[in-house]
Specification:
The protein has 388 residues and is of the alpha/beta class. It contains eleven helices and 21 strands. Helix content is 27%, strand content 25%. The protein has a five-stranded mixed beta sheet, sandwiched between helices. Strands 4-5-8 form a three-stranded mixed beta sheet, with helices on both faces.
Length: 388
């Protein structure tokens, strides 16, 4: 990446394919909305843990019964994979780590990591959120205390089945309190060159940052994320999306200035006009703009739209855009639709040619109106370091 030294900021939001130290999963339990199908979603989580630990370390946030979760993991993962598992216990309302997890900033010269702890309020106070809003500070500030002097904090820390982990890893970053501003990780995408993509229908929705206007929110995003440009997308909301239209369900920024977006071609679908406008807006942006650092043109690549999936009469937000990027793999949500699943995975493989493409059935996940990217949060290299 070409870096203009005169414009260096303390940190910028890296692209998601930036090398990673770990992936966070917040484990489902009876106190979450997963309770009616806890067995099914637990199996999905075990599949995710298996796929993730083949390529990345895994941070598991668990409550209650951490012993039971460790046993589940030990029964599913190899001994080598278990060496990559770190388990933290702290209270949670739900499991959407993308939105209650820390957003990471990177100093472009030194690589130093800054963890940004934004306010999470249940997507505009739609759902219980106060425990989830404390996870990042419990997780990282608690970990910092425990690793430093072995004092007991509200966070218990497990590593490979043992407490404590002071001999294993320690936090190697700064935590910045951003709790005066509501922001969810699923609402933003970065190209790693100073451009942030987001959606107007989400960030200007009620009960987030009112009475701030869109222009005022943009100023805050630039300041807090080290961004030079904010691209607002105004169309493309999936049915059943409780987030008011997170960008990670419809548009994803990928290496070499490629932009993957979901395209709906069925003109009879009630969503067709909205997603046609999204495509038009993206085409207009790509025709008029280049990346800020390398001045490269953006390339738009369409992902198929899954056939409609229903839970009773409710249409669920199925999407192939909600994939998770690992260091050497990409986990793609699939929906038991052989032709479209394969088409989506082939397209994503073309964008990530050196990474292994792994499909995981996301039909249980979308019953709670999210998918694989929504359940996870990546932490860039430099977040942790092994103690010598």
């Amino acid at each position: 990446m070409n870096i203009n030294i005169s414009k260096i900021k303390e940190y910028i939001l890296p692209a998601e394919w930036y090398p990673q130290d770990a992936i966070q999963l917040t484990w489902p339990h009876e106190g979450t909305d997963w309770a009616p199908y806890l067995t099914e979603i637990t199996e999905t989580y075990l599949q995710l843990a298996d796929a993730i630990t083949r390529y990345d370390p895994l941070l598991v946030v668990a409550t209650p019964e951490p012993d039971r979760i460790m046993i589940l993991l030990e029964n599913r993962l190899s001994s080598e994979q278990m060496k990559k598992v770190i388990l933290f216990t702290t209270d949670s309302n739900d499991t959407w780590a993308r939105d209650h997890g820390a957003v990471s900033g990177i100093n472009p010269l030194t690589g130093k990591v800054y963890l940004l702890d934004f306010h999470f309020n249940g997507w505009g106070e739609k759902f219980p959120w106060k425990k989830d809003n404390c996870i990042t500070r419990n997780l990282f500030l608690g970990a910092q205390m425990r690793f430093g002097d072995e004092k007991v904090s509200r966070t218990e820390i497990w590593h490979n089945g043992h407490i404590p982990t002071a001999a294993a890893i320690e936090l190697s970053t700064n935590i910045i309190d951003e709790n005066d501003f509501v922001l969810e990780g699923g609402s933003i995408e970065s190209d790693g060159e100073g451009t942030i993509f987001t959606t107007s229908h989400c960030l200007t929705a009620p009960h987030r940052n009112q009475p701030l206007t869109q222009r005022q929110i943009e100023i805050q995003l630039k300041k807090r994320l080290g961004a030079d440009r904010i691209i607002w997308l105004d169309y493309g909301i999936l049915p059943g999306d409780d987030t008011d239209g997170h960008i990670d369900t419809t548009v994803r920024i990928c290496p070499d200035h490629k932009i993957l977006y979901v395209e709906l071609t069925d003109k009879k679908d009630a969503l067709y006009n909205d997603f046609r406008k999204l495509k038009d807006q993206l085409q207009d942006f790509a025709a008029r703009n280049t990346s800020l650092q390398s001045e490269s043109h953006y390339e738009l690549i369409a992902l198929p739209f899954p056939d409609a999936i229903y839970d009773g009469k409710e249409r669920l937000p199925a999407t192939y855009a909600n994939f998770l990027i690992l260091n050497d793999a990409v986990i793609v949500p699939t929906y038991y639709q052989a032709t479209k699943d394969k088409e989506a995975m082939d397209i994503i493989q073309s964008v990530f040619p050196t990474r292994k493409i792994i499909g995981i059935d996301a039909r249980t996940i979308i019953r709670q109106h999210g998918s694989i990217h929504c359940l996870t949060m990546q932490y860039p290299i430099g977040t942790f370091r092994k103690k010598r």
